[in-house]
Amino acid sequence: MKKAGLIGLGAMGAGIARTLRGRGWALRVCDARPGAAEAFAAEDGGGTACASPAQVAEGCELLVSVVVDAAQTEEVLFGNDGAAAAMKPGSVFVMCSTVDPRRSIAFETRLAELGILYVDAPISGGAAKAASGQMTMMTSARSEAYAKADALLDAMAGKVYRLGDRAGIASKVKIINQLLAGVHIAAAAEAMALGLREGVAADALYEVITNSAGNSWMFENRMAHVLAGDYTPLSAVDIFVKDLGLVLDTARASKFPLPLASTAHQMFMQASSAGFAREDDSAVIKIFPGIELPRGETKDGGAA
Question: What is the largest CA-CA distance in the chain?
Fold first, then answer.
């Protein structure tokens, strides 16, 4: 069987792992949460649960990291029992987190010094698409890395965009995607909140907007969570505090104005500081005063 390792079995990572397993890959996995890797290995189709990134890396030459941010990626690679020290020269590290493009470039440089290849490969589409193998990957890498990792990338995602021959390019595209995603969620919440304040029935407003020119994927997806009164975090408020912060940091470096992204970032910051940090990002609607939020049930979907 084709062999690979995967580190990080959260909402996206677990879906990717199950997709790969269903497509004939034998997986070594680990996760910072006790029992998560063992639970995955106990499922039908199995897998090998490992205690550390280093132990994952010892048994395969293709390693996928699906952790939250650059700090966690740093720990996966270079922390205690990190993967980098255990990876053989010529192995490939596939980095799927949303990070500052400059950090991705730095990861590629540090791994290259060890003879390890690197794929900058942030992902989008949410847990549902990760589990069905239909998510989108934005990738950039050197030709040698693609040559070894192409089969793995194609098995992970429905769409794999190959955007350049070095790290950083893919992360820049993901940053732009997150700008739009965050602004669209914030705008969707603002529109729904105004409708509620003006006495419009939430389900009627949802039905009309999702069949009109004002609709967006984020309105249709996230306002379904609001109608259901379900703020279980598929993508949490604090994810967009982080990601829109990365957007603004990237633009600030070149003195490029982003007024809409700045406003959306402040909205997510307000939601986070109000106690909704770990709720679904649609909970940004809770910052609006004087509205009664729905508690009903409706269709649900994935995350950004």
Answer: 63
Contacts of 179 (CB under 8 A, 6+ apart): 244, 247, 258, 261
Nearest to 88 by CA among 30, 191, 5, 180: 5
Pick the catalytic residue: 2, 3, 172, 174?
A: 174
Instruction: Tell me the whole-structure pTM to 2 decimals.
Output: 0.92
Catalytic residue flag (residue 286):
no
Domain boundaries, the chain: 2-167, 172-287
The CATH superfamily label for domain 2-167 reads: NAD(P)-binding Rossmann-like Domain (3.40.50.720)
Q: For 259, phi and psi rounded to 5 degrees?
A: -65, -40
Please write the tens of the pLDDT for every residue from 30-80: 999 999 999 999 999 999 999 999 999 999 999 999 999 999 999 999 999
51 burial level (CB within 10 Å; 0-12, 13-18, 19+): exposed
Give the residue carrying structure tokens 């922390």: 79
Structure tokens at 198: 């003006």
